[in-house]
Design a protein that fits this description.
638 residues, alpha+beta, five-stranded antiparallel sheet, 24 helices
């Protein structure tokens, strides 16, 4: 292209603008940086630890119905008290439980703590283990999902302090809130540790690549500045809508990666232009006309790909995708405006503070290891293609047995509080004691006790079920047949009626305790069976909703799995059209999509090989769950 033609190009002119108005550009970014700083202090408080509900699902509808029942709370935890030597009736055991219960009732967000010692015998039996050594009690919370996770650690401390004086009796909290709070804390800590390791390694690699501290520091510095601005923008978004706490980590990882990547494109080309004899302004403009356009197309393609995540109807997942989009957009904007301005100011000084002098190619852009590698590949393209395809297929092969799922307490270290409490409860009652399946019945007329009894019997017949607690199972045996309604209307029966009936008797609930925990495949298969079974046994005019943590996990998995096809289709179509617009070729966009698909397949294969199959888990320090978290494949693809 002629010089005059080059100068008419948009990105060339943008480079010239950044050169001629470099101090304006730098000042503008400093003002943006300064405006973002106060927002960072509010970010942690604004981020949500919840947001995983699935609107319109059975579990969401069941949650709404649960609010009609007295003593039923949106969020519950489980207090587990046990003794290796004594029993639940020992005075020391009873005293410690009452102390812990009293302390919890004064804790944040706690509305109620079940006291099995004052319940009717039929109802109390489900809280005591058969060997008489373990007691569980429901801790009803007034919190929403986000608040419950925020208060979980404080409640753990309250339990530890109230039970700390005993050596024979122990008390711990388990359930969804303690589990996900611990999961969030460990995940956030590990990601922060990874970032602390990644930064020095990135600097070392950049120094080795450029041989200069200034050249190596520019991409890192620009990535950090972009990250601050990104977090400020996320803080503004989080002030008005649900943004997951994981959004910060996702934005950090992606923002640092693309920020360094985009800077490398421009910085490398700028240095080549300087070596070719161009002046600062012309070198910046030429770098922008070539690498600048590549950065813009790359960033736009990534943002379009990430936009597919917005099709998932789960607020927390959508917020992670949105945060990643913001990170890429800010990194791109900084690379196309601030970086050219800084390069123009530095000029040849970009190579200042050289650690060592790298050998430079003598002629134009030729020479060097990568040039020789590209030349060798082009000499034998079919050989390279066959070898590459063989490597890709080998690495991608494990993805054929990819299993999606949700992790349970067994992914924690063996001494982690949620895991210890869950294991004690599972051994004494079955894993479903902590997070049971709950069935809510809503009828046009009063719910028939005979229908509840029939459903209780049908559900109990499933091999996954340990027991079912319903109005039919808690009525005292001395109540004569046909007198149940009269008993429930009596002073003795009204407490039971309040727990199991609502809306004038038109609603009822059944609690199903299972052998497996809420995150297991067996439990999720049971929820699917139960929903299908209820459609055939629920009386006409009655609607059944299956809720609880196990049902929520099933609905989340369903939403994620049902989103795969539309997300993949949207990403592929939009990416193809975007690349078609810029390249004006059918073959190049198609090749780019095939290459991207191959790299994603390899990523899936390695993910399964390491994290699902458990290879190198001792070396890398993790416990395999035997599956991949359900949301990861979509993020990797996007």
């Amino acid at each position: 292209m002629s010089e005059n033609g080059e100068r008419r190009r948009l990105f060339f002119r943008l480079g010239l603008f950044a050169h001629r108005r470099r101090w304006w550009v730098v000042t503008a970014w400093l003002l943006i940086f300064a405006a973002a700083l106060p927002l960072l202090g509010k970010l942690s408080d604004r981020l949500s630890q919840g947001g995983f509900e699935v609107p319109g699902s059975q579990s969401a509808r069941a949650l709404e119905l649960s609010r009609e029942f007295r003593g039923r709370h949106d969020i519950t935890s489980t207090l587990v008290v046990w003794s290796e030597t004594g029993t639940v009736q020992d005075p020391e055991f009873v005293a410690l439980f009452q102390d812990v219960r009293t302390a919890l009732l004064a804790g944040p967000g706690v509305a109620e703590v079940t006291d099995p010692y004052v319940l009717p015998e039929q109802e109390a039996a489900r809280y005591f283990s058969q060997d008489g050594k373990v007691l569980t009690a429901e801790v009803g919370l007034t919190d929403n999902q986000d608040q419950a996770l925020r208060h979980a650690e404080e409640l753990n401390e309250i339990v530890a302090e109230a039970s700390g004086g005993s050596t024979d009796v122990r008390a711990l909290l388990t359930g969804d809130a303690p589990f996900y709070a611990a999961f969030t804390e460990i995940t956030t800590h590990d990601l922060e540790r990874a970032e602390r390791i990644a930064f020095p390694l990135s600097l070392l690699i950049l120094v080795l690549a450029f041989g200069s501290l200034v050249a190596a520091g520019l991409p890192l510095g620009l990535a950090l500045l972009s990250l601050v601005v990104t977090f400020g923008a996320i803080s503004l978004i989080a002030a008005t809508t649900t943004v997951s706490i994981f959004t910060q980590n996702i934005a950090s990882m992606i923002g640092i990666g693309v920020g360094i990547d985009y800077s490398l494109f421009l910085l490398t080309r700028f240095r080549e232009e300087l070596r070719a004899g161009r002046q600062n302004g012309d070198a910046v403009a030429a770098a922008m006309a070539t690498s600048g356009k590549a950065v813009f197309v790359s960033a736009l393609t990534v943002v379009v790909s990430l936009s597919g995540i917005l099709l998932v109807d789960i607020a927390a997942i959508r917020s992670m995708g949105l945060g990643a989009m913001v990170a890429v957009a800010v990194a791109c904007a900084a690379a196309l405006t601030l970086l050219p301005a800084l390069l123009s100011s530095l000029g040849p000084r970009v190579d200042k503070w050289a650690i060592f002098r790298r050998k430079r190619a003598e002629a134009g852009y030729g020479g060097g290891w990568w040039h020789r590698w590209a030349t060798a590949v082009m000499r034998r393209p079919w050989t390279a293609l066959i070898l590459t395809a063989a490597i890709v297929m080998t690495l991608a092969f494990p993805a054929l047995h990819l299993r999606l799922g949700s992790s349970g307490p067994d992914i924690f270290p063996e001494d982690a509080t949620p895991r210890v409490a869950a294991e004690v409860t599972a051994e004494a009652f079955g894993e479903g004691q902590v997070s049971p399946v709950v069935v809510f019945l809503e009828s046009d007329d009063a719910v028939e006790l005979s229908a509840v009894a029939a459903m209780t019997e049908a559900i109990s017949a499933d091999p996954e079920v340990t027991r079912v607690v319903s109005l039919a199972t808690v009525l005292p045996p001395e109540v004569p047949p046909g007198q149940e309604a009269a008993f429930l209307d009596s002073p003795q029966g009204r407490p039971l009626a309040a727990m199991f009936l609502a809306d004038g008797g038109r609603m009822s609930q059944l609690t199903v305790v299972t052998k497996s925990g809420p995150q297991t495949e067996a439990n999720q298969a049971f929820v699917e069976r139960l929903r299908d079974r209820l459609e055939t046994i629920v009386p006409e005019g009655t609607e059944a909703m299956v809720g609880g943590s196990p049902a929520l996990n099933v609905d989340i998995n369903r939403e994620m799995e049902s989103s795969i096809v539309p997300v993949v289709a949207m990403v592929l179509i939009l990416s193809f059209l975007l690349l078609l617009l810029f390249f004006r070729s059918l073959l190049l966009p198609l090749k780019a999509i095939i290459m991207n698909g191959a790299s994603v397949a390899v990523a899936y294969g390695l993910l399964v090989f390491v994290f699902q199959d458990g290879h190198f888990q001792e070396l890398l320090g993790f416990n395999t769950a035997g599956h991949i978290e359900v949301f990861i494949p979509l993020f990797l693809f996007s």
